[in-house]
Design a protein that fits this description.
elongated, alpha+beta
């Protein structure tokens, strides 16, 4: 297996676990919904069982998501800086809005979890903009620093968590859920 294939394999397994945990389900729930043996979800999440396409399709349905969202890879352009429009004295940040987007202002005081099993995943996208301080965004095994006036944009099917680094951090988070 190539390095990229191994990373995708690990990412899909993390997403399966994160989606199950986000639903508050024990291992038996997706097994029953996908008509799999009781030990199959555990062995799939822990890498003890090969990921087969037909099982991924069935597991995606059982977890209320799609195969595309389970295997989607992240863009390397996660963190962006604003564009300064000096002529008009404005700071612009191009954001593609989605129907049903919710915007929330939040203050973070805790670092993100250091254990990837505590990260969440769900259909949609998040677009946090850091207003003050420094945020740390964890996407799977990748770690991004997001400084004041920077933003991030990522699919929330990636196991993720966001927290602060070196003190409180203020941000605005745009979240869009996808059906």
């Amino acid at each position: 297996m190539e390095h990229d294939d191994a990373e995708l394999d690990s990412l899909v397994r993390q997403r399966i676990r994160a989606l199950r945990v986000a639903q508050g389900w024990p291992l038996e729930e997706p097994a029953g919904r996908a008509n799999l043996g009781q030990s199959s979800p555990s062995r799939i999440e822990n890498g003890q069982r090969r990921l087969a396409l037909d099982q991924l399709v069935t597991l995606a349905r059982a977890l209320d998501t799609s195969l595309d969202q389970l295997v989607e890879t992240a863009s390397d352009d996660v963190v962006t800086s604003p564009v300064i429009d000096a002529a008009h004295g404005l700071m612009r940040r191009p954001v593609q809005g989605d129907p049903g987007m919710t915007v929330v202002r939040q203050r973070m005081t805790e670092p993100p979890p250091d254990n990837p099993s505590r990260m969440g995943a769900h259909p949609g996208r998040e677009r946090p903009v850091v207003l003050s301080g420094t945020a740390v965004l964890m996407l799977g095994h990748r770690r991004f620093r997001v400084e004041t006036d920077q933003a991030a944009d990522f699919p929330t099917m990636l196991p993720h968590a966001i927290g602060t680094e070196g003190g409180p951090c203020g941000s605005i988070v745009g979240n869009s859920a996808q059906a």
